[in-house]
Amino acid sequence: MKNNTLTPRQLMLSPDVLAYEIGQIPTPKKIENRKIATYVIIGVLATIIVGVISYEIYQYHQENKRKTQDLN
Length: 72
Fold this sequence. Notes:
Elements: H1 8-12, H2 15-22, H3 28-71
């Protein structure tokens, strides 16, 4: 087991501040940054999915147009 010694200043800190300082829990700023990054990733994936679906629909309609023109 790892035995980390705390400085006298750290011993006087409140538990939440001490946990932030020694890295046991993420700070609110890190949580916010992760949330923003998650939204950006979800947005990019959603855009790609919509683009692929749109392209597939376009290709399907083009194929149908070609088939109807070949029949005439």
